[in-house]
Specification:
This protein has about 250 residues and is mostly helical. The protein has two domains: about 120 residues, no CATH class; about 110 residues, no CATH class. It has nine helices and no strands. α1 runs antiparallel to α9. The longest helix is centred in the N-terminal third of the chain and has 38 residues. The chain is flat. Belongs to the binding-protein-dependent transport system permease family. FecCD subfamily. This is Iron ABC transporter permease. GO terms for molecular function: transmembrane transporter activity. It is found in: Cell membrane.
C-alpha cells in the first residue's frame, strides 16, 4: 500500500469516528428530549415546569406520584433494556464478524424464549408452590446459554466459521421457534397469555423493582466489555472492507 492510500484510509477512519461521535451526541439529545416528552404526556397531561418541580422537589401530591411511580420507572426501564439489547447485538456482531448477526438470528434469543415459555407453561403451573416468577430470567439465561453452546458445537469444524454460525443459528432458531409455538398452543389460556406478554415485551405497570431487577445484570455485564477497547465494531468493518475491496457495503453502513 502506498503512502497516499494509507493517508486516505486514515482520513476515512477519522471521518467515520467523527461521524460516529456526532451521531452519539445527537441520539443522546433525542433520547433526553423523548424522555422529557414522555414525562409530560399521558392520560394526565402535565406542563414541563410542573414535571421539573416534581422531579427536583418531590412531595406527596398526585403529580409527584404520577411522575415518580408511574412514568419515570417505565422510561428508565426502557432505556436500560434498549442499552442491554444494543450491547448484546454489538458484542455478538463483533464475535462472529458479521454486521447482520444478532442474538435472534443465531438462535440465542429463540433458546431463551423456549426456556422461558417452558418455565411458564409447564414448570410454573405444575410446581407453582416451589417455583417463582422471579426465577424466569434465570431460566431464560440458561436457555440462551444452552442454545449458544449448541450452535457453537454444531458449527465447529476445525474452528468456528462466522458463516456456519449464522447458518446453524438460523436453523436452530426456526426449530426452537416451532417448539415455543407448540408449547403456547397446548398450554392453558392464562399461561399462554403470560408467555405472549413476556415474548413481546411490555412496560405496562413497570415499577422501580423491575428497574432494580435489571440493573445488577447490566452493571455486571458492562465491565466484561471494558478489557477489549479495541474490539472491532461494525463501523470498523466497513472501513476495512472498503480498504481491501474498494467497494461500499451499504448493509455495514
Amino acid at each position: 500500500m502506498t503512502q497516499s492510500s494509507t493517508l486516505t484510509y486514515e482520513s476515512g477512519a477519522n471521518n467515520e469516528s467523527n461521524r460516529l461521535l456526532h451521531s452519539l451526541w445527537l441520539l443522546s439529545l433525542l433520547l433526553a428530549a423523548s424522555a422529557g416528552l414522555s414525562l409530560c404526556l399521558g392520560s394526565f397531561p402535565t406542563q414541563p415546569l410542573q414535571v421539573l418541580g416534581a422531579l427536583t422537589a418531590p412531595t406527596h401530591s398526585d403529580l409527584a406520584f404520577i411522575i415518580w411511580q408511574l412514568r419515570l420507572p417505565r422510561i428508565v426501564l426502557a432505556i436500560l433494556v434498549g442499552a442491554a439489547l444494543a450491547m448484546a447485538g454489538a458484542i455478538l456482531q463483533s464475535i462472529v464478524r458479521n454486521p447482520l448477526a444478532s442474538p435472534d438470528v443465531v438462535g440465542i434469543t429463540s433458546g431463551a424464549a423456549l426456556a422461558a415459555v417452558l418455565y411458564l407453561t409447564l414448570l410454573s403451573t405444575s410446581l407453582s408452590t416451589l417455583l417463582s416468577i422471579h426465577w424466569l430470567p434465570a431460566a431464560a439465561m440458561l436457555g440462551a446459554l444452552a442454545s449458544a453452546l449448541l450452535v457453537a458445537s454444531l458449527a465447529w469444524k476445525n474452528g468456528i466459521s462466522p458463516s456456519r454460525v449464522v447458518l446453524v443459528g438460523i436453523g436452530l432458531a426456526a426449530a426452537m421457534g416451532a417448539g415455543t409455538t407448540l408449547l403456547i398452543v397446548i398450554s392453558e389460556d392464562s399461561a399462554a397469555m403470560t408467555a405472549y406478554v413476556w415474548l413481546t415485551g411490555s412496560l405496562y405497570a413497570a415499577q422501580w423493582g423491575d428497574v432494580m431487577g435489571l440493573m445488577p445484570w447490566l452493571l455486571a455485564a458492562t465491565p466484561l466489555c471494558l478489557p477489549f477497547p479495541d474490539m472491532p465494531m461494525p463501523w470498523h468493518w466497513a472501513i476495512k472492507w472498503r480498504k481491501g475491496l474498494g467497494c461500499l457495503f451499504c448493509v455495514a453502513e
